[in-house]
Amino acid sequence: MIVAMQEKATEEQIDAVIEAMAEAGVDVHRTTGATQTILAAVGSTASLDINKYEMFPGVLHVHRISAPYKLAGRAFRPEGTVVEFPNGAKLGGEQVAIIAGPCAIENREQIFDIAACVKAVGGGFLRGGAFKPRSSPYAFQGLGIPGLQLMHGAAQEHGLLTVSEVMEISQIEAMLPYVDCFQVGARNMQNFNLLRELGQVRKPILLKRGIAATIEELLLSSEYILSGGNYDVILCERGIRTYETATRNTMDISAIPMIHKLSHLPITADPSHGTGRRDMVPAMSKAAVAAGADALLIEIHPNADKAASDAAQTLYLDQFEKLVGELRIIASAVGRTL
Ligand code: PEP
Ligand code: MN
Asked: Partner of 226 for a Cys bridge, out of 35, 71, 111, 167, CB 3.0 to 4.6 A?
């Protein structure tokens, strides 16, 4: 249930509603906007009487929202969420963010070269995997914390923010000094214990859609993080598994406008995993920006064919530079900057 207060509602009126909701045994999450306060009841809301809350002084209207997620729903923050980073970078606003880097951090030279390239094209986020969820236990599993230290150094040198995947709760603490944003991979989208723990973290979370997850399931997973009090969640469409075999996954471009309709959370598009093919990444990147993506996550490597993981979908640095130039044109055509 969402209670929208009137623009002129007083603090006493707002407190009275919060108190009544709390007495009814639900958790109340408050959003204080520039002009209006929104209260969201979370928990066993089925027994709440909407009509009762409509009668409280200062209440504009009350919605019973049928979607099972509440904090992730568009109604909770109709104006949309803009995630702000400590250096002032924003994700979810007018500017489309560029998040790029290698699938896996491999060595110092590789990650420093990539950081210089991300900076040169005007990107804000360096992303590299240190803990890699590989389909085969015999494949390269990542450098772990020493890899994150390398990426952090490269990001510092160029004033970039870092993003890296966390696979389990025990890695969170050790990663904290080196990452500005935790990525939750597709395989962990429904690792609910991990999501709950990330709800306690005060850094943004990039939550990828599971390979067989519906949009509703993705939003429900985000709800685990939001309900812990971490409101800085960025969603990511990275392709889903379908009957098609020509591409590694099927890039669900329609998920982008659908998620914008259903949720206030920013949405990133990952055309690298979404297609699994270097030759398809530029077209899907452009389609994603045209469809309203708030950020792009692209795998790049100076020696892409020799990348330790996901080589086939990784762009060479010159291909990436050319693509970013083209994306600027698409972004301006849809009223965004990049
Ligand atoms: C990755 O981002 O390198 C990755 C493993 O992605 P996903 O979880 O989407 O497969
Ligand atoms: Mn990858």
From this structure: 71
- How many Å lie between the centroid of ligand 2 and the Cα of residue 273? 6
Closest CA to 206 of 111, 113, 273, 286: 273
Atom of ligand 1 nearest to the CA of 310: 3
Give the sign of the dihedral formed by CA 54, CA 60, CA 66, CA 68: negative
- Measured from the CB, is residue 129 less than 6 Å from ligand 1? yes
Q: Which residue has a Cα nearest atom 8 of ligand 1?
A: 185
pLDDT digits (tens, 9 = 90+) for 145-204: 999 999 999 999 999 999 999 999 999 999 999 999 999 999 999 999 999 999 999 999
Nearest alpha carbon to residue 209 among 134, 260, 268, 164 = 268
Question: From the centroid of its chain, how far is CA 95?
Answer: 15
- Residue 234, helix vs strand vs coil: strand
Secondary structure percentages of the chain, helix, strand, coil, to 5: 40, 20, 40
**Which structure tokens are listed for 249?**
């996954």
* Ligand 1 atom at shortest distance from the alpha carbon of 183: 2
Q: Please work out whether the CB of residue 259 comes within 6 Å of at least one atom of ligand 1.
A: no
Separation of CA 131 and ligand 2 centre (Å): 11
Atom in ligand 1 nearest the alpha carbon of residue 239: 9
**8 Å CB contact between 116 and 90:** no
Q: Residue 238: CB within 6 Å of ligand 1?
A: yes
- Amino acid at the residue 143: L
Residues in the chain, overall count? 338
